[in-house]
Amino acid sequence: MSDAAHIVDLYERKAHDWAADRRRSGRFFEQSWLDRFLSLAPKDGAILDIGCGFGRPIAAYLIAQGFAVSGIDSSMTMIDLCRRDFPDQDWRVADMRTLDLGRRFAGILAWDSFFHLTYDDQRRMFPLFAAHALPGAPLMFTSGPEHGEAIGNLHGERLYHASLAPDEYRALLAANGFAVIEARMNDPDCGGHSVWLARHTEGR
Known about the structure:
Oligomer: single chain
InterPro entries: Methyltransf_25, SAM-dependent_MTases_sf
Shape: globular
CATH topology: Rossmann fold
Radius of gyration: 16 Å
Domain Methyltransferase: 47-132
Organism: Undibacter mobilis
Structural class: alpha/beta
CATH class: Alpha Beta
GO molecular function: methyltransferase activity
Strand content: 25-35%
CATH superfamily: Vaccinia Virus protein VP39
Order of helices and strands: HHHEHEHEEHEEEHEE
Protein name: Class I SAM-dependent methyltransferase
Strand order of the largest sheet: 3-2-1-4-5-9-8
Largest sheet: 7 strands, mixed
């Protein structure tokens, strides 16, 4: 079985370890990007957080800014932690690759989650992003800076990442009705993340 195929099981088994690491780090380098993302979404709208983890710090920040959150994650343990800490929000166990929530959102976020998919699974996500986006909704996700695979480490186990080339992401966004607002590779102010911020233009 490939490293990519182990992601769902790995995050479920390491859910409490990952959450503890995130709490201990105390870092919140995502805030400036989240503020830009939220500035494009109506205040009364709901945000879809794809790969929400245990809800901290990102979903917690969205909620604190007054937004409703629908969070999905493949890990039941992660979702249980979200439901415990934020019982008024909508949390679901789901695989992003087959996402079909039957509704559209004012913003879609896939931070440090989408890049665990294989190349082909990433390509197939763009119609799903579009199917869940209201006209004008921002979409933000993280990727790698160039086409390739990378293996990280999560408490002693191999952690798969993949990225398409920037030109292919641009083409996929355009083909699915998203206009790129900014793409910044290896942002030094965001822990070296490569960040994409786009906006859904279909139906406007």
